[in-house]
Amino acid sequence: MSFEVFEKLETKVQQAIDTITLLQMEIEELKEQNNSLSQQVQQANGNHESLVRENAHLKEEQHVWQERLRSLLGKMEEV
Questions:
Q1: CA dist 57 to 24, 40, 49, Å?
Q2: How far is the C-alpha of 71 from the C-alpha of 79, rounded, in Å?
Q3: In which band, very low, low, confident or very high, does the pLDDT at 1 lie, cut at 50, 70 and 90?
């Protein structure tokens, strides 16, 4: 009788070990995925900052062209 109990306990222990092993593998996969996503976020932030700078530069260029156009239109009206 006690041998059967021992076998059941051994089976449960082995199941627990298997479950722990699977969970550890899943944790490692999630850590790798988290690192990858963190890198993607950093890259996206860098791209965002670059686009914000480019947008500001283009707005400034647009403003300069608008002023030049206004100046030319003003000279045309004087003529």
A1: 50, 26, 12
A2: 13
A3: low
